[in-house]
Amino acid sequence: MPFAAITYDIKPGFEKEITEIFTGFRRVGSPVVRDATGAQSARILSTAVFIRDATMVRVIEYEGELADIARHMAVQPGVREVEEKLAPYLSRPRATDTVEGFVATFERSLLTCMAQMSVRDHAPA
Fold this sequence. Notes:
SchA_CurD-like, SchA/CurD-like domain-containing protein
């Protein structure tokens, strides 16, 4: 299962406030992601958020098409709520109020995956 990581440029010193934002996060309605035709194209398996100093990283474990994951996240009420609540703590604003803006910001914030390993990738000994 692949992982994606996106960064947020945040103002340092607000770790507690940002943690509180994610404590009340409303999960997506379904982990199943559908493409424009309605067919299942991806699935969100897990997410995690990390923070240190002026950087926050959201890690997403998924199956399928990452572009469809980004479009799916763009319309999720919980994701939109978090983006709105994070705005005062960002050192670089994110234009995520439209689907197009969210997807463009997601792509621009995406880290390059250098290596990825999982015990699930190997047959049992």
